[in-house]
Amino acid sequence: MWKTVKLGDVCDLSTGGTPSRTKPEYFDNGDVKWLVSGDINQREIFDCDGRITQDGLKNSNAKFLSLNSVLIALNGQGKTRGTVALLRTNATCNQSLVAISPKEENSLDTKYIFYVLDGMYYKIRKITGDSGNDRRGLNMPLIRNIEFSYPPLAEQQRIVAKLDATFAEIDTAIEVAEAKEVEVEKLKSSLLGGLLNNTENNFNTVKLGDVCDLVGGGTPSKNNDSYYDGNIPWATVRDMAFNELYVTQHKITELGLKNSSSKVIPKNNIIIACRVGLGKVCILQQDTAINQDLRGVIPKRENEIDKYFLFYWFKGIANQIISAGRGATVQGVKLPFLNSLSLPQPPLAEQQRIVAKLDKAFADLESGTLATLKSKANYQALKSAILAQELQSEAA
Description:
This protein has 396 residues and is α+β, with helices and mostly antiparallel strands. The protein has helices spanning 7-10, 54-58, 110-119, 121-127, 140-144, 153-196, 198-201, 208-211, 254-258, 307-316, 318-323, 335-339, 348-391, and strands at 3-6, 11-15, 32-35, 44-45, 51-52, 70-73, 84-87, 92-93, 97-102, 147-150, 205-207, 212-216, 228-235, 244-245, 250-252, 264-265, 270-273, 281-284, 288-290, 294-299, 342-344.
């Protein structure tokens, strides 16, 4: 017979705390494991980066948690809030986590609790609101009042064993899918390197600044409403999610363009990220103004540089650009560095042949990537379906 209870009636809940940050002696050279909300994504926690000292432990609300307890994250606006993990090591935590352990081990299996709460992830997030400005953190009273159903201990253990075995198979399939993603990225890099590598092909090289104009951008004042909601697309790095840019999040007016450093880059030209999002590149599908983190790359002579060849070349040297980034907070590259980049320049017909070959190869690879992503999504959906099926109350 299945019972329906509140979590707080059958489990003990405890949380932790944070030693004073003004006391270095509470953290420096500490040997006490100290968990924070980000550690919850390990699912099974055997170690963590955080450490506090014995003095930090003694002079704060941090305390050792029950081994093998279920941890749940109270805060986090991404995926963290409501996520659960199993604690497999002696550790303390800060106030963003709650440890849950059965009051009577002979009636409630800890891993069964883990699977129940994992299956209730979206329901738990809705308790505190999961959209817009309604998002709030979880707290101990809310967790104590979570209702769930459970069968006798032997049935719990049967369900746990079945879920363990099934999920192990699914996790293996997900690992295979992820390995395929890595291989696809390696193949892309190999293709770019092989076809664009000057030492192999003995192409002539030129300085980028000698054959292309690199045009900077700017941002109209945010305090002037007449500069925005116009009809001129205005790009930031946030708009560079794909290889081709069709739509921007913002548009500016002619007045905004005139009273800022922003410049319009003609369609079919490339823009690159030189600061935020360093290394990103895409091709414009409409005339677009850009902000100060981007630069337009415009060939000085159309019959010398194929723009898609230029695009693939930038893809191929992305890591070189990222490595050259400098800055205390945000890494960026300056105009002199970009102008000095050595660009392979085979004859135009050869550039176009290379582009055609890369287009086909990348299309095939992207098709495989989409299939892999779909497989991963299906595997995750299967996990949710199995949880729902196995954990539904037979008492209903």
